[in-house]
């Protein structure tokens, strides 16, 4: 998210994933997440170290490789919500508790830390200023609601993982939890009242896209992830995808921590999915 108060730096970490075979436009939309990097970056305006994610993979139709830097958590959250829509959990959550994969909850907990850190930094920095513009005042009010959203996510994620004897198997999310998250994500659309203006840099293409903007350079961010109503999962009147059944969860990707040494980055502590089993780190550049 890039707003007028604090604009985080983009990180140059590992390269993007190789593209999958292309599909002709109009076929089933699918997203293959190949790697998530968990790291930190120095935010000079806020003068603090904040957590972030790098999410890489390939989206079809088009076979477009992507490698996004998510500094505020909304992008990865939208990826999770889109996967829950494709799996039917969003529609089911309108009336009942739903079971989701443990990895989804583990990733959601980390995303809650990314979002909480980012929006708390905005509020702390804004408190030191007495010259905020009218637009920045609106953004501060938005940041308060966004901080509460991510804090609620973290609380629920930890509660879900602690249930069932603490082993975290078959974690559930309470009725309306997914739909409430998705309902807030609807404010990311440029057409929304007081829309949240959330942009992300794609290191694979060196282009920046606004989430849920149909004119964004990235079809994944602008159209695929936002093709359905994010709060209800309902298909829109003019959908981009014939089907979103191929949109999987980012939590199933290889997950690694990333650390920088002497100006170079390296991946460590890798798992085969969020909260999964330990696996060797890939060679640098893969």
From TrEMBL:
Residues 267-286 are annotated as: Disordered. This is Uncharacterized protein. It comes from Sphingomonas leidyi. The lineage of its organism: Bacteria, Pseudomonadati, Pseudomonadota, Alphaproteobacteria, Sphingomonadales.
């Amino acid at each position: 998210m890039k707003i007028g108060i604090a604009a985080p730096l983009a990180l140059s970490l590992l390269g993007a994933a190789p593209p999958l075979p292309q599909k002709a436009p109009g076929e089933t939309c699918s997203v293959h997440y190949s790697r998530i990097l968990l790291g930190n970056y120095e935010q000079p305006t806020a003068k603090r170290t904040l957590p972030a994610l790098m999410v890489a993979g390939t989206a079809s139709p088009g076979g477009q490789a992507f490698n996004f830097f998510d500094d505020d958590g909304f992008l990865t959250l939208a990826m999770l919500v889109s996967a829950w829509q494709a799996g039917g959990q969003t529609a089911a959550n309108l009336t009942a508790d739903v079971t989701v994969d443990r990895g989804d909850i583990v990733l959601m907990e980390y995303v809650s830390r990314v979002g909480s850190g980012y929006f708390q930094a905005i509020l702390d920095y804004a408190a030191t200023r007495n010259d905020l513009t009218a637009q920045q005042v609106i953004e501060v009010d938005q940041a308060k609601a966004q901080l509460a959203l991510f804090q609620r996510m973290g609380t629920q994620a930890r509660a879900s993982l602690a249930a069932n004897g603490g082993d975290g198997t078959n974690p559930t999310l309470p009725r309306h939890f997914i739909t409430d998250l998705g309902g807030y994500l609807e404010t990311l659309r440029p057409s929304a009242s007081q829309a949240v203006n959330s942009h992300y840099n794609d290191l694979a293409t060196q282009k920046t896209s606004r989430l849920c903007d149909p004119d964004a350079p990235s079809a994944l961010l602008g159209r695929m992830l936002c093709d359905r109503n994010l709060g209800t999962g309902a298909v829109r009147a003019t959908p981009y995808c014939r089907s979103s059944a191929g949109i999987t969860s980012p939590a199933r990707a290889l997950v690694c921590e990333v650390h920088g040494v002497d100006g170079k980055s390296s991946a460590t502590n890798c798992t085969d999915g969020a909260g999964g089993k330990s696996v060797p780190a890939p060679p640098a550049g893969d």
